[in-house]
Write a structure and sequence with these properties.
Chain lengths: ~375, ~1100
């Protein structure tokens, strides 16, 4: 087993490994996630647009791939970094191996990387641009350095739907039971939405219309929705100025619910600020406390920026707190039916502890 | 202030704001409780190992830390938890409801915490609830409520609960009669699983493939269940098996600590299965469905302040999920999960039990929240350790009844690496996933398995020493059959099957082991070919977990020097609960291969302690106890302590026992790599039993400073010729004997001494393969077994000794600093010579040895210690016949009895030994005189015979006990009685006693019969014994021996006419003839004594019990020790 590829970070750190997936070269921001399950959901999560994702779990691909587990139409991760890729698929639902899946979707990957060393490096020195390829490390390093930095990039534009569409599929046999109230109509603003959010909305009894990220407030209201949902998505929230604009107009007019990027956009629309965390939250095991009930929920997270709750003083109350570092995980607007969370209640991948938020949204829309 | 610190302080402010706005916020620990009774799990038995010492110790520590007064009860003296400093009051007393009631009456605790002491503690809690004791003394059950325990443990209730929350369980019916059982079997269809209620480790359980097997199995199951109840269940053999370790607090917060996947599919008890963490073959959807089920289950069952273990099965073909069972308490798997993730489940569970919620607790390793679910970036493999070689005649098939006696855990970056590390952690002389082709006659084995399956009868097969040279084709066909049967070595058989060309698909068909796991094995076999062909890059090979020794076997050339020259060295990564998302504060490390080491070795003066590896018969918790004590003592002296061990059940592998923990195999290569990383001042090898001791010579040769007794001194004690020189020099006697190299030599030596002789291989522990042989033919048979046992040992010598019939054996433990020797204790064996010291009951102080003999023993011990230059601990075994004292053997290391002595005398021998090894004198550590006690302590052994149907229970020179208990009292009979009670032997105070003894024992037996008859017992005896008893003027009922006509004694036992049995025998024929008697005694759960000395002690104990009208008095160790001061 000879090494034949490298992952090289912009700071020059090079990790040897072996090519997997599509035979080519790729550049993006190197990030890691600590989830032990759900690599296919990670690959297809639009929030990972232009990122090279390192799985800290070392044995990846054991259960192959199945269309059912795609969180969007195709992988968004720009590259995939693993310790060991399984050569065999073991799962009754699998339709192909992960390697075949990566090849089919032209995702460049690398295995045999000391993923723990990489993770510790990224933890200590921050996420940074990187390249995966077969060139010598110094060439790859130059390419990584030459790439466009992620800050200030509006990536929602790259991943959002081109057209408005109706979403009707629920979770089917995998659904967790939810209390429903009527059949409220929700307009979901697609900033890079994961399918499971839409499924959860359907499970909660909603009629769901998905619209492009740049849809104006007027066009959204023209749908006569009972509520508006702001999705997760990739990139810098500050760059998605059009969405911030629309949201600002919508506050108070309809109940609003935001997740992740949607939460940050909502906060910005309310005049709040965000800052970068020393250690981002990336995994399926993050403990969050619901301050209204005191209950702890284990959540899925993937964020390096966080809302500065002090910047919203007098406007919002802190509703959810991260138990590890005490950062803001959820807010609610004091003057309207507007709330949002930084984490992912739809999970996929991750625990289902926070599904109640969809019920809460439905309750607000139908009260 | 760091950015991180800023965030935290900001959070605190927000939290405070939130609290003032009406949210209840932090609800601190309970202040209405002051005194808590913690119940331990008793002796180490199969299914309940030293994991409950780990959990009890963590629990006791956590509760004391919180300011509670802790009262602890456990009958097992070898535990750390029963060290007097871990509780305010420590009772080493029998774990029976009556005794625990007496403790409650005396101590008046506010609460009882039963969830850290295994099934034993839960059962006691239930009994004390049912008999009203808890109500009467106003004791609250914490950790789990009675309702929750019953719902989880009683099959019917559990099933109902599962149905209620919409979860499937296997179709099943709980039955109480054989007729109902057969009816249920008809409804469900074969194969059928039997699960008796309320038993440990699945005792009494099994699988039946047909009506006949079922009939046999159900009767056995009923006999094993305390409430004569059994679940008859649909077979889901071959399904994938998973476990979740979960915790929940009183605010309904829930977290999964670990997922575990079993390599062996359903049908093999999880304790006997190779298990892997985290789960390897679940998609997120499937895992989350299981997690949701786990939450629903723990909520419905009602465990609201602690941990639970939940087992699931998944149909590999369609993903159907079935709930198997739930343990509403900390379990063996929790210990594994704690070690696998770094999350201290028992400690957290104890804190939840006193009212904390998860959000109020911190994870020590990262300083993050205790509600942060651990995530890991490595793979953990646990392998069970079996002891079938000790139980000839036992059914070797693995079933739903646990049969393993211990386990080893290994951590690696891949399954392959972890698996190979685990194989060499097992202490079976294997340095990886080795081939057994030269050791196992596969075609013969296949034939035997087919015969078993067809006849339903297990017949032992003798393994020949010469294995024919089979072709790959022959082996392929044989292995295709062999791998179908789950047995201890199946993993190795599967590997051999791959080596001879069976495919993953062939093996999946035969075993239902998941294809992913089989592929990993296939990849290792592929790598072996590359290694053998010289094509493999060393750095890559090492990442697959191949040891130097294994690579050498494959290539035929030494590798170590070359590897070090090439700079191919392991790195050490941290077990951090978070996959490196945060910085870990705790140096809990494992070796792997990669870029940079995270050991951050210090330049402090440090001492490395080598642990004992997996528990097995002959090497158990006692050695872990000694290692832990050394860590405590050396830390106190200011050394940095480094622990190396691979047993997940232990206290030594808790991350806060030592300054640094290396969870690693105990082999030369693995230990040397740590030495190179840490550069310790010295290494302690004499406390972890034979495992580390056997590394001493190699380590010393590599320049490692072995602390205490030198490797040469160890060799002088072990090497027969060198040892004889010492004895001659000191003028000490030993039984006549000689050393044999090979079979012919053994005959010569034995005939020279004269039969019977005691034979054993040198350099083995626990009397492995030790036997008393009575004839030439006997010796011939023996040599086959012996040669198998010593395989892999450094020398292949067999020791042949005169058998000292009827001698009294004595064990002495002593500690020496090289110039002064202090006796720890002189213990007299209750059984006479011929019974292994690990199986024998012992009494401290020696109650019936004349003073001159005792003086002789003490002076001989001193002389031996000084002559050998012992620095640290030493154990000597003597045999006494009349006034003659013989030295049987000397072990210059910690022995099994060290904790027993310490518990009785209050002298922490292991700590003192560690300090002495580190350079202190005995005077400096304050031990200059032997401490003798006015009270009497008895150590009794506990045996796993109920797990092995068909095995003879007679005691002999090969050790077979798994654990021990201690009874303390004012007199020998009281202490002996308590020891028996602790070992679950309940002496009768009325009824019939059956006596059948060999000729030599008849005078004593007659005397015992007279005494028992005087107490109102009826005496039943076989003809020969009866006439001896009658001559003593006692009325006897004569019973037929088995084979003398019905009803015979076995029938009488079966019908419940007999309350106790004294049966001594001699000679192979008599032993064979009386075997059915002993089996039935075991089946009926009766007290039985197979030596006349033990029968005498039992008689005295019965007299004492009757005299005190059945009342027990309890007293804490602290009180006993205070009385000595």
């Amino acid at each position: 087993m000879k090494n034949n590829a490298h992952l090289v970070l912009a700071d020059g750190t090079a990790f040897p490994g072996r090519r997997i997936g599509h035979d080519g070269e790729t550049i993006g921001e190197a990030v890691f996630t600590t989830g032990m399950t759900g690599y296919q959901e990670v690959l297809t999560d639009p929030s990972y647009q232009r990122q090279l994702v390192c799985m800290t779990a070392p044995q990846i691909g054991n259960t192959g791939a199945t269309p059912e587990d795609d969180e969007s139409a195709a992988p968004h991760a720009a590259g995939f970094i693993v310790y060991e890729l399984s050569k065999v698929t073991s799962n009754w639902r699998a339709t192909e191996s992960l390697d075949e899946y990566l090849k089919r979707h032209r995702v460049v990957g690398i295995e045999g990387v000391d993923t723990r060393a990489l993770t510790r490096h990224l933890r200590d020195h921050g996420s940074q641009l990187a390249a995966i390829g077969s060139d010598d490390p110094s060439t790859l390093c130059d390419k990584a350095r030459a790439a466009t930095p992620m800050t200030g990039l509006d990536l929602a534009r790259e991943v959002t739907t081109k057209e408005r569409y109706l979403w009707t599929e629920g979770s089917g046999v995998w659904a967790s039971p939810m209390t429903t109230h009527g059949k409220p109509k929700v307009v979901a603003v697609d900033l890079g939405v994961k399918r499971n959010i839409l499924r959860c909305l359907v499970d909660a009894g909603c009629e769901v219309v998905v619209v492009p990220a740049n849809t104006s407030a007027a066009d959204i209201l023209a749908e006569s929705p009972d509520g508006v949902f702001l999705s997760n998505g990739p990139g810098d929230p500050a760059a998605v100025t059009y969405a911030i604009e629309s949201v600002r107009e919508l506050i108070g007019k309809r109940p609003l619910f935001g997740i992740c990027l949607g939460h940050q956009i909502l906060s910005l629309a309310l005049g709040g600020e965000t800052y970068k965390l020393k250690f981002g939250h990336r995994g399926l095991n993050q403990p969050v406390q619901d301050l209204a009930t005191g209950k702890v929920e284990v959540t899925t997270q993937n964020h390096g920026f966080v809302v500065d709750v002090d910047s919203l003083k007098g406007k919002c109350e802190l509703t959810h707190l991260h138990l590890n570092d005490g950062t803001c995980e959820g807010i609610s607007h004091l003057e309207s039916d507007t709330f949002s969370v930084q984490y992912h209640p739809e999970a996929a991948a991750g625990p289902h502890d926070a599904r109640y938020l969809f019920e809460r949204f439905v309750k607000q829309m139908t009260k | 202030m760091s950015a991180h610190g800023l965030l935290v302080s900001r959070a605190l402010v927000t939290l405070a704001d939130a609290c003032s706005e009406g949210y209840l916020g932090a609800m601190p620990k309970r202040t209405d409780l002051k005194k808590i009774l913690l119940v331990g799990s008793g002796p180490i038995v199969i299914g309940q190992g030293c994991e409950f010492d780990y959990s009890g110790t963590q629990g006791a520590k956590a509760l004391k830390q919180e300011g509670y007064e802790v009262v602890l009860v456990n009958s097992n003296p070898a535990t750390i938890m029963t060290d007097p400093e871990f509780a305010d009051r420590t009772y080493v007393e029998p774990l029976t409801p009556a005794v625990v009631r007496a403790i409650i009456e005396r101590e008046r605790p506010d609460a009882l915490l039963p969830t850290l002491g295994g099934q034993t503690a839960l059962n006691i809690a239930l009994a004390l609830h049912d008999d009203g004791t808890l109500d009467e003394f106003d004791v609250e059950l914490i950790g789990a409520q009675v309702g929750a325990i019953r719902k989880a443990e009683e099959r019917e209730l559990f099933k109902e609960a599962m149905t209620k929350i919409g979860l499937e369980s296997a179709r099943a019916k709980t039955v109480r009669t054989v007729e109902d059982a057969h009816e249920a079997a008809t409804d469900i269809g074969f194969p059928i699983i039997l699960r008796p209620s309320l038993t440990l480790g699945g005792t009494g359980g099994g699988i039946a493939y047909n009506r006949e097997e079922f009939d046999r199995a159900i009767r056995w199951a009923f006999s094993q269940s305390p409430n004569h109840e059994c679940l008859v269940e649909e077979s889901i053999l071959g399904w994938k098996e998973f476990e979740l370790e979960v915790i929940r607090d009183r605010a309904d917060n829930f977290a999964v600590i670990c997922t575990i996947e079993n390599f062996d599919p359903m049908g093999v008890h999880t304790g006997d299965s190779l298990t892997v963490a985290p789960a390897m073959t679940l998609t997120d959807r499937e895992y989350q469905r299981m997690r949701d089920a786990g939450r629903a289950i723990i909520t419905e069952i009602g465990v609201d302040t602690g941990g639970s273990n939940i087992q699931f099965a998944i149909n590999p073909d369609d993903g159907r999920l079935i709930v198997i069972e739930m343990n509403p308490r900390v379990s063996r798997s929790s210990a594994l999960a704690s070690k696998a993730t770094g999350y201290p489940i028992a400690k957290i569970a104890a804190k939840l039990a006193v009212g904390y919620t998860l959000d109020e607790l911190k994870n020590d390793i990262t300083g993050t929240s205790a509600a942060f679910e651990p995530t890991i970036d490595y793979v953990v493999v646990k392998m069970p350790r079996f002891a079938f070689e000790k139980f000839r005649g036992a059914d070797p098939r693995l079933t739903t009844q646990m049969k393993s006696v211990g386990e080893a855990m290994a951590i690696g970056r891949s399954f392959k690496e972890a698996l190979q590390k685990a194989t060499r952690s097992l202490e079976t002389g294997r340095d990886g996933l080795v081939s057994l082709r030269d050791k196992v006659d596969y075609p013969a084995l296949a034939a035997r398995y087919i015969k078993w399956r067809e006849s339903g009868e297990i017949t032992p097969g003798e393994q020949g020493l010469d294995i024919p040279a089979y072709s790959d084709e022959e082996l392929r066909e044989a292995l295709r059959e062999v791998v179908k049967t789950p047995v201890a070595d199946r993993l190795f058989y599967v590997a051999d099957a791959l080596r001879v060309g069976l495919t993953v698909e062939d093996l999946y068909e035969a075993t239902r082991i998941d294809r992913w796991f089989l592929t990993q094995l296939a990849e290792l076999i592929e790598a072996e070919h590359e290694i053998a062909a010289g094509n493999a890059e060393l750095a890559w090979v090492k990442t697959l977990g191949f040891s130097d020794a294994r690579i050498e076997t494959l290539t035929g050339t030494p590798i170590r020097e070359e590897r070090l020259r090439a700079g191919v060295r392991p790195i050490y990564a941290r077990v951090d609960t978070c996959a490196a998302e945060f910085v870990a504060e705790t140096p809990y490390l494992y070796s792997t291969w990669g870029r940079n080491s995270e050991s951050e070795a210090t330049d402090r003066k440090k001492i490395m302690i080598l642990g004992g590896g997996p528990n097995r018969i002959g090497q158990g918790i006692e050695f872990d106890y000694c290692c832990v004590h050394a860590a405590f003592a050396l830390r106190e002296m200011g050394f940095e302590t480094i622990m190396v061990n691979c047993n997940p059940e232990t206290v030594s592998t808790d991350y806060d026992t030592s300054d640094r923990l290396y969870f690693e195999p105990l082999t030369f290569e693995d230990v040397m790599s740590i030495v190179e990383e840490e550069n310790p001042y010295g290494v302690i090898v004499q406390l972890g039993g034979q495992t580390p001791l056997s590394l001493a010579v190699g380590l010393a040769r590599a320049g490692v400073n072995i602390l205490g007794t030198t490797a040469d001194a160890i060799d002088r004690a072990e090497d027969r010729e060198r040892f004889d020189e010492i004895l001659n020099k000191l003028g000490l006697k030993r039984p006549r004997g000689g050393i044999a190299n090979g079979v012919d030599d053994a005959f010569a030596v034995a005939e020279d001494i004269g039969f019977p002789v005691v034979v054993r291989p040198s350099y083995v522990l626990g009397g492995r393969a030790m036997e008393i042989v009575h004839s030439r033919a006997d010796l011939k048979r023996y040599m086959r077994v012996a040669l198998e046992a010593i395989e892999g040992a450094e020398t292949q010598t067999i020791l042949v000794d005169e058998f000292l019939k009827d001698a009294i054996e004595v064990d002495v433990d002593a500690v020496s600093d090289g110039t002064r020797v202090v006796i720890g204790g002189v213990m007299q064996h209750i059984e006479e010579a011929g019974v292994h010291s690990g199986d024998s009951s012992m009494v401290l102080p020696a109650h019936a040895l004349p003073p001159d003999v005792q003086a002789n023993i003490r002076s001989s011990t001193r002389a031996l210690a000084l002559e050998l230059g012992v620095v640290g601990l030493m154990n000597v075994q003597f045999a006494v016949r009349g006034s003659a004292v013989y030295v049987i053997e000397v072990n210059p290391r910690a022995s099994r009895t060290v904790p027993f002595i310490s518990k009785s005398t209050g002298v922490p021998l292991a700590q003192i030994a560690a300090k002495v090894m580190a350079g202190a004198t005995l005077e400096e550590v304050g031990l200059t005189q032997e401490v003798t006690t006015p009270h009497v302590a008895v150590k009794e052994s506990v045996f796993p015979f109920t797990k092995f149907q068909g095995v003879d229970t007679i005691l002999g020179p090969e050790m077979r006990s798994t654990g021990e208990v201690m009874g303390i009292g004012a007199t020998f009979p009281e202490a002996f009685h308590k020891a028996l009670l602790s070992a679950s032997v309940s002496l009768p105070t009325a009824g019939s006693i059956f006596i059948s003894v060999r000729d030599d024992d008849k005078p004593v037996a007659s005397e015992l019969a007279r005494r028992l008859s005087g107490l109102g017992f009826t005496i039943v005896a076989t003809r020969g014994t009866a006439s001896a008893i009658e001559r003593n003027g006692v009325n006897v009922t004569i019973a037929n021996k088995a084979g003398e006509g019905r009803p015979d004694v076995v029938d009488r036992l079966r019908s419940g006419e007999i309350a106790m049995v004294f049966n001594t025998t001699e000679g192979q024929k008599a032993i064979r003839d009386s075997r059915s008697l002993r089996r039935q005694t075991l089946l009926s759960g009766l007290p039985y004594f197979t030596t006349i000395a033990a029968a005498t002690a039992a008689t005295a104990a019965i007299e004492e019990t009757i005299a005190r009208d059945g009342k027990v008095t309890v007293r804490s160790l602290q009180e006993y020790h205070q009385a000595l001061a």
